[in-house]
Design goal:
By secondary structure, the protein is α/β, with parallel strands linked by helices. It contains eight helices and five strands. The protein has one domain: 3-Layer(aba) Sandwich (Rossmann fold). 46% of the residues lie in helices and 11% in strands.
Length: 211
């Protein structure tokens, strides 16, 4: 992905991990998770770029939900950088509500999001892979459903030459030092440290190195 440019409009899309308590009544509110951390770091480093940030994550969303609101919550905002982080609910609903999304459905819906974006906008893409950690113990069983979805995101990132954020491996690696609950107490929703890990990985994916 090319470096960020002056006047870029950066959109974060996803589920509760992206939402992270944002105020829906304030258009520029970023919540308290990784979008906020990223905006803070980029704003500190590059005030001359006049970057704009939008968070349109909504708790509980799956790929199908993003498709339903993509016109209003993506295309109408005219972003120049579109960050998509979706997938854990496409797995979770299989286990808590008997409402599965197959890897094929997930891939097809995700691909439609990308193609509709590139058809309408001159935007750069950042694809963030979903992750799950083995806390509580039942999360281990989710891997058979989530792993093919992670593979789908990787395939799409390669096809569309998107910046890619490999979270599943990064969270697994970080957990070797501390245990997984430190990074996500329920295996899904990151702690403050977990959000910082996502922000660092996102910035590196777009070519912004830590300093």
């Amino acid at each position: 992905m090319a470096a960020l440019a002056a006047n870029d409009v950066i959109l974060f899309q996803g589920d509760s991990i992206t939402d992270c308590g944002r105020n829906y009544h304030e258009a520029l509110n970023l919540g308290v998770g990784y979008p906020y951390f990223i905006a803070a770091e980029l704003g500190r480093r590059y005030p001359e770029l006049n970057l704009t940030f939008h968070n349109r994550g909504i708790s509980g969303n799956r790929v199908v939900d993003l498709e339903r609101r993509w016109e209003e919550d993506c295309l109408a905002l005219n972003p120049t950088v579109v960050s998509i982080y979706i997938g854990i609910n496409d797995t979770w609903r299989r286990y808590d509500n008997n409402d599965p999304t197959s890897a094929e459905q997930y891939y097809a819906g995700y691909r439609r999001l990308i193609t509709s974006t590139l058809d309408r906008l001159d935007a750069k893409l950042v694809l963030v892979e979903p992750f799950v950690l083995p806390v509580p113990e039942d999360r281990k069983g989710w891997r058979e459903d989530l792993d093919p979805k992670i593979a789908a995101v990787r395939e799409l990132a390669q096809e569309f030459k998107a910046a890619y954020v490999p979270l599943d491996g990064l969270f697994a690696q970080a957990s070797m030092k501390t245990g997984p609950a430190y990074w996500a107490g329920d295996g899904v929703h990151p702690s403050a440290a977990g959000h910082s890990l996502i922000a660092k990985a996102w910035l590196e994916a777009v070519g912004v190195r830590a300093r």
